[in-house]
Amino acid sequence: MPSGQLLLEEPIRMASILEPSKPSFFSAMTKIVGTLGPKSRSVEVISGCLKAGMSVARFDFSWCDPDYHQETLENLKTAIKSTTKLCAIMLDTVGAEMQVVNKSETTITLQEDGEVVLTPDQGHEATSEILPINFDGLAQSVKKGDTIFIGQYLFTGSETTSVWLEVSEVKGNDVVCIIKNSATLHGSLFTLHASQVHIDLPTLTEKDKEVISTWGVKNKIDFLSLSYTRHAEDVRQAREFLSKLGDLSQTQIFAKIENVEGLTHFDEILQEADGIILSRGNLGIDLPPEKVFLFQKSALNKCNMAGKPAVLTRVVDSMTDNLRPTRAEATDVANAVLDGSDAILLGAETLRGLYPVETIYTVGRICSEAEKVFNQDLYFKKTVKFVGEPMTHLESIASSAVRAAIKVKASIIICFTSSGRAARLIAKYRPTMPVLSVVIPRLKTNQLKWSFSGAFEARQSLIVRGLFPMLADPRHPAGSTSATSETILKVALDHGKALGIIKSHDRVVVCQKLGDASVVKIIELED
Ligand SMILES: Nc1ncnc2c1ncn2[C@@H]1O[C@H](COP(=O)(O)OP(=O)(O)O)[C@@H](O)[C@H]1O
Ligand SMILES: C=C(OP(=O)(O)O)C(=O)O
Ligand SMILES: [K+]
Ligand SMILES: [Mg+2]
Q1: pLDDT at residue 285 above 70?
Q2: Which of 28, 36, 95, 252 could bridge to 274 as Cys pair (CB 3.0-4.6 Å)?
Q3: Burial of 500 (0-12, 13-18, 19+ CB in 10 A)
């Protein structure tokens, strides 16, 4: 542990809590994924989001069309250029999401104790008596007494626009429900959630496939956020689909666990996926409230032990309309970090919230404070024990690099990597200092043309806690001599100095290959 670090497990001087934190170049080691939409699509606001610490932009296709998202993405590109902040792109699918079909977007008022019918017959206009939906199997899926929830797209916990229904009768293809609370539905999109009920809709719908193979390919998406992942097979099928789409064979799949079905198959899903999104919005309705934290803590622990990034959603709902989070939300963000999240995903807060930039900034500050008291020592020991012996050579090198960096109080770790594997393994051991992952391009061919790898690998580290990528010049391709390694190291050190993350006399731990051997070396900088 670096000296002066608070350890929550030890008695601390209360006044030390108030000591201001030293400003650092990176807002936090924990990453922030922002969902871009109406309130976060101008170059100006996106630039603000990037500067505040957003490193992944999520485009949610549950909502709006590809042209709209393309316009936002073009603005994101401009903002990336002008701020020189890196940002990865995540496409979020619609998947097995049930939606109310309300073409004319009329306001619908539902009265407590009244009745409303859910029908697959989309010929009906949506009214207070009947709501057409996009799924024709609901009547076969639910039974009397089941709970159905209807909420505004990216609903927050504090809205009066969401309604609880109880199924009272199934009539042919229609489902008659009792309204449990009065609510007014207005807005363009309402989603339905039937609690703990299997919905026989595909995880990757035809519309999703269409969007991925057009918008996704065109924009070389770094991450696919696979909504409603319920089985490992869902991930395998998505992988198979991506493998035939050129560059998208490199897209990482983040399985979104949003219901009890996904929770039940968590272990198999984790094995297949590149990362996990704990979709607490939907899962928070599917699970009894007293069980949510148990899933969160055990799922994050499993992701950490597997060395796969975990993303947590729905943290500061109330910031959609307010400049400050509630105390519960502020504490929740910190606990997400202490529990092991790699990234926090903001939904409504950035998409339609009034304070997207301030929200990112606030969440980043809370994360950064929590990182300082994260018990790295305990975590490290737990991880080493979990992995067991014999460790793979690379994992042993990676964990040693983290140990050495802490022991010598290094200001950063520099990791050379091509596939990204070494950097991810270092991040797995949760170093307390930033890791500059220097991605060395590799010359590759797809039989049609030659190109350099590296861009995907670099951007994909933008969702991993503690990793900060730098793409090396392709004139220094992988597998080259120790002389080029030295040149690249010098470039990396200069880059670190220019960013202000390293200064004269600092110690730096470097993980690289020299000849055939992976080595960890400690260097002390001169003036
Ligand atoms: N171009 C490179 N030059 C020097 N060392 C490298 C290079 N690429 C990877 N390494 C080192 O090689 C080892 C294997 O790293 P890994 O990320 O698994 O590389 P690969 O891209 O070959 O899978 C690590 O010690 C890493 O730091
Ligand atoms: C982010 C979530 O899902 P969606 O994007 O489908 O609203 C969630 O359920 O927390
Ligand atoms: K979605
Ligand atoms: Mg969801």
Answers
A1: yes
A2: 252
A3: exposed
Give the residue, 21 or 112, on which the prediction is more confident. Answer: 112
- 20 in any annotated domain: no
- CATH number, domain at 166? 2.40.33.10
pLDDT tens per residue, range 234-257: 999 999 999 999 999 999 999 999
Give the confidence band of 188 by pLDDT, cuts at 50, 70, 90: confident
Check pLDDT > 60 for residue 480.
no
User: Degrees (nearest 5) of the Cα angle 285, 231, 210?
Assistant: 90
Q: How many domains does the chain have?
A: 3
- Residue 514 has what pLDDT? 85
pLDDT of residue 147: 96
CA of 77 to the centre of ligand 4 (A): 26
The rounded mean pLDDT for the chain is: 94
ipTM: 0.93
pLDDT value at residue 4 = 52
Same domain assignment for residues 440 and 485: yes
The last residue of one of the domains, among 160, 194, 228, is: 194
Q: Is there a single domain that holds both residue 163 and residue 226? A: no
Q: Whole-model pTM?
A: 0.96
Cα(393) to centroid(ligand 4), Å = 39
From 424, 426, 489, 512, give the residue whose CB has the most ligand 1 atoms within 8 Å, as the site to mutate.
512
pLDDT bracket for residue 358 (50, 70, 90)? very high
Does residue 512 share a domain with residue 390?
yes
Domain membership of residue 398 as a residue range: 377-524
| Residue 35 resides in a domain | yes
Do 227 and 305 lie in one domain? The reply is yes
Mutate to test the pocket of ligand 2, among 58, 59, 92 (most ligand atoms within 8 A of CB): 92
Q: Is residue 421 part of a domain?
A: yes
Residue 114 in domain:
yes
- Span from the CA of 1 to the centroid of ligand 4 (angstroms): 38
Q: Say yes or no: 92 and 102 in one domain.
A: no
**Cα 444 off chain centre by:** 29
Report the pocket of ligand 1 as residue ranges, CB < 6 Å.
Answer: 394, 397, 415-419, 421-422, 440, 478, 485, 511-513, 518
Residue 302 sits at the vertex; the CA angle it makes with 9 and 314, to the nearest 5 degrees, is 80
Give the pLDDT score at 2: 44
DSSP class per residue in 327-392: HHHHHHHHHHHHHT-SEEEESHHHHT-S-HHHHHHHHHHHHHHHHHH--HHHHHHHHHHHH-SSPP
The CATH number given to whatever domain includes residue 368 is 3.20.20.60
